[in-house]
Structures are given as C-alpha cells and as structure tokens.
C-alpha cells in the first residue's frame, strides 16, 4: 500500500519558506522560481486541508498548524538527508571535509593539530577556509564551522573546543614615559582599540576589573585580531586580545601586557555541524577526534607561556 505523504519537493519548499519567511528567498535557496515555490506550498496546504502560513506585513509566518507540522516533519527530513549523504559517501569515512574557522583561531590553534588527525584518518582530505561568524552550510558546502559563543545554535550540534582569555596589550613605546609601573588604572590615559567581533570586550573586561569609570565603548575599531595587534604594536593604543593570538609577539617583546592578568571570557569556541549531518562518517570521525584530543588542554599548554 502506498504511503500517504506529500512530495519531497513540496516539503522542501515548505521547510525553506518557513526558514526564511519568504517564498522568494526559499526559491533562491532551492534554485526554483518564486511562483513554483508558491504553487508547491498551495498544493501542500490543499493536500493537508489547512493553512500553513499567514502573511504579516512583508513576511510569511507559520500558523499554529504550520508550526506543529514543521516540528513533526523536520526530524524525518534530517534523517532522510543523513541517510542519503551516508550512502553517497559509500558508508565510509573517506572523502573531503571542509572546515571553516576564524582566521586567527584557525591558524594558531586548530591547524597545528591537524597533522594528528591526518595520521589517524589519512583517507579524509581537509579543505580549510577562513570564516568569521555563522556560515551558510548548504550554499558554501561547509561540513564543520568553528563558532564563538555560548554553544546553543538552532539545528547545530556543537562540540566545545576552547575558552578565551583576554589581556590588554600595547607596544613598549606606549608606556616608556610612565614614571611608575603600569597598572590597569593607567588604561584611562590611552586610546582603547576595539575589535569588531568583540564589541563589548573592553566594557566587560573593565567591569570585571572594577574600572567602571573608564569608557570601554568608544575608540578605533578593527575587523580582525591581527589588525588590532599591529595597531597596538605601532603605538596607536591598547588592544584587548585573546592570549592564543599574541603568544609569539609577547615572547619576541614586540608587544607587552603590563596592565594586569588575562581574564576569562564567558564564551567559548565550538566545532559545529548541522544536526542532520552529524552522523555522516567523515564528520563523525572529525568530531570524535576532537573529543578524544582534549583540545582545551593542548591549547592551554600552548598559551601557558603568556606573560603579563
């Protein structure tokens, strides 16, 4: 007896429209026309005998029936995708694994550990790309992304990698004329250099140090850790940077950290993949390797030489 289920094309159109709140965006994602997506949704609504979407201003929102239906079918769609990808990979761990990570964390922390993974899994080739923030896993064909945050992202499986300790640094010339040993209180006399991805970095660090009267919100902004470090080394001000990003520069004396010890950030780095693909053999192999590696301990050992 045939199953009473709608077409996979209709379900895909429904899921992507719910994701974006737009039939036009769903069409772009599925490489269809907007009218084709609209017809699929209308056909699905007729088949089910209920409205799945309501229009609010310029956005399509799920009706209670639509929300209930989406939550019911999404696990099945995820399982179908996972099973299909496993078959396409031959059921083995071989293949190409694409990993995206923030440039500094990737180059200084994760890439040095990859030879260990290659030794254990020579059948898996790794493509490593630079990416800050949430990628589009499907459009960019990314298998695993390193994200910074609290570890709770919708539809993603997250494996904790490492925390982050932030410390103020500057070029030696910036404090050369002080007539006393530098302290955190001296930060009020220097420009504070900010990083775009850590907009509250200074405010949180100063608050934790009991220096609430120093303005931690304003100052020059830089997109990457490396840019902020270069600016600080050139004498433009004091940058607040993670210890893993500045170990070599501190050892060389190019920069100094005289304003106090590092302070832990409330956020961490996580290796993340879509939950629907977590059981794909090559992804499972990489995640299991990270779990067994105890990445946090190895990275802690790498940055233990940081001096203040």
TrEMBL record:
It holds the Pfam family LysR_substrate. SUPFAM superfamilies: Periplasmic binding protein-like II, Winged helix' DNA-binding domain. CDD domains: PBP2_GcdR_TrpI_HvrB_AmpR_like. Residues 6-63 form the HTH lysR-type domain. The keyword DNA-binding applies. InterPro entries: LysR-type_TF_proteobact-type, LysR_HTH_N, LysR_subst-bd, WH-like_DNA-bd_sf, WH_DNA-bd_sf. The keyword DNA repair does not apply. Keywords: DNA-binding, Transcription, Transcription regulation. It comes from the Bacteria. Belongs to the LysR transcriptional regulatory family. PANTHER family: HTH-TYPE TRANSCRIPTIONAL REGULATOR, HTH-TYPE TRANSCRIPTIONAL REGULATOR TRPI. This is LysR family transcriptional regulator. The lineage of its organism: Bacteria, Pseudomonadati, Pseudomonadota, Alphaproteobacteria, Rhodospirillales.
